[in-house]
Amino acid sequence: MSTVVLLVLTGLGLGALYFLVASGLSLIFGLMDVLNFAHGALMSIGAYGTWWAASGRLPGAGPGGLGFVLAVAFGTAVGTAAAVVLELAVIRPLYTRPREQILATVGVGLAVPALLSAIWGADARPFPAPDALSGTFGLLGAQVPLNRLVLIAAAVIVLIALKVFLGRTRHGLVVRAGVEDRAMVTALGTDVRKAFTLVFAIGGAAAALGGAIGGLYFGSVDPEQGTSLLIFAFVVVVMGGMGSLTGAALASVGVGLVQQFANYYTTDGLGDLAVVVLLAALLLVRPRGLTGRLA
Amino acid sequence: MNANANANANINANAKATAAPPLLTVRGLKVVVGGRHILHGVDLDVAALGTTALLGRNGAGKTTTVRGILGLVPRTGSVRLDGEETVHLATHALVRRGVGYAPEDRGVFAALSVAENLRLAERPGAGEPAYGLVYELFPELRTRARQAAGTLSGGQQQMVAIARTLLNGNRLIIADEPTKGLAPKVVAEVARVLERAAETVPVLLVEQNLAVVRRLARYCAVIADGRTAHRGPAAGLLDDPDAARRLLGVGHAHPHTQPHARPPAHPGTVQDQEAEA
Ligand SMILES: Nc1ncnc2c1ncn2[C@@H]1O[C@H](COP(=O)(O)OP(=O)(O)OP(=O)(O)O)[C@@H](O)[C@H]1O
Ligand SMILES: [Mg+2]
Fold first, then answer.
1. CATH code for residues B1-96+215-253
2. Which residue of B has its CA nearest to A181?
3. What HEC string does A5-62 produce?
4. Which end of chain A is more exposed for a tag (fewer CB within 10 A), N or C?
5. Do the interacting molecules here have an ipTM over 0.85?
6. Which residues surround ligand 2, an ion (CB under 5 A)?
7. What pTM value is reported for the model?
């Protein structure tokens, strides 16, 4: 029983991480038809930004208490800025050439980890975690690491914030409409490209936040972390239905749980395969994903 | 050629009849999509008053003309709105100068509610949106405000599309086949609303239903194979069975329902006969 509890919460924590990456990926694809292969790199930037700040290099930031909160905010901000630069400098000029656009994001996705390892080395660096988040708590006989709760809470807050943004604000309305029919949004007098930048900023922020607190989960940062997570985020996006936030949330939970349980009860690594099998099975039954559309 | 001489005569007649300069002047509009030349040079004037109909057979290039005017497809040539050249403008910038557009497929956002569809058409800084007018013309849109637009009937969706063009006190309304696929009663209602809108805002109307054209349009332009084939008063064209048959291909069946369909082969009701055939 205690194993099951631990596996469930670890699976949910992993799912939370997937959701933080997949939510932005899904919105970007839904609105802009851009598959952003650089999204994992944005997560890595968030992770390294946080690690850099928390290891005492940013005044005021540090590994504990408010200093850690500041470090996470810094890492998230750097990732957000990187996402905006990516959209303005790489995606926008290639807007009419989708193939080159994809190649460019692949290029950035490869260049960023290379750059990170050139500066800080290819080896994993220990991630300075605050004491308050390093412990465990008891639940139904299991000792569950606290960082799982941090991840789950962050994902739930991001989900709610995105829902409120999409459902209650004019910009959110433009994004939802743009997911359905971009041309018609411009034909009603709204510059949809501003929404592109905004969606990149939001998606980048979520991914960078995932990187920042993902360091807690993994206990270290390394240049390839974001990129290796990206593939599962893509699985989540496809399963959830391109452009659907609720779908991405549900699929994140499913993928995280299946992966954890399969990895534990069968051979390590089979869980990753099980996720791909799950994707194939779902697409056979529901070709448009769990939801089919943004909600 | 005979057709050209005819068109020129009609353009002269048109120029004489129109005192005010046209609101929209399109010259030499060319559109190439995916390497295919679709428009080879369309000339078109939208009168400063009333409705101007844009006619032509299926696939002639009417929708492409409208999308070219709006910049929804890459275009070259000249599109002047009230004297100002707009061909270099992005679609949203042109629209903000006061153009309302109801596209051929209605362009309603299916997953959004009726109210959200209308809210999207509001233009910040363009004054108070005219919800009073919209709800007076389409009371149903108020009661269905929270309904997802995708679950509306075709006629109701068309009302949403037209309502979006009426919200902003536009200078020009462009409606692409607003009566397509609608039941006769709804066609009459849409025609009534457009007629009323055209009292205050000039309308460029793409329409295959010739009874609606006859009722609404003062002037018309006919597109054939991506070129302007004819310009002149609408009644002049509709009352000339030969020209109508040659330019519009009426006589070939087309499926639109007529608001005032009469039995065919009635002497003196040529227009209805044409429209129906
Ligand atoms: N995006 C596109 N790519 C390729 N060809 C196109 C495209 N859009 C339109 N066409 C072609 O251009 C021609 C004109 O099409 P358009 O839709 O403008 O005609 P239309 O007069 O509006 O016809 P209808 O009465 O059927 O609405 C057609 O032959 C059509 O197949
Ligand atoms: Mg058309």
1. 3.40.50.300
2. B109
3. HHHHHHHHHHHHHHHHHHHHHHHHHHHHCCCCCCHHHHHHHHHHHHHHHHHHHCCCCC
4. N
5. no
6. B 62-63, 104
7. 0.84
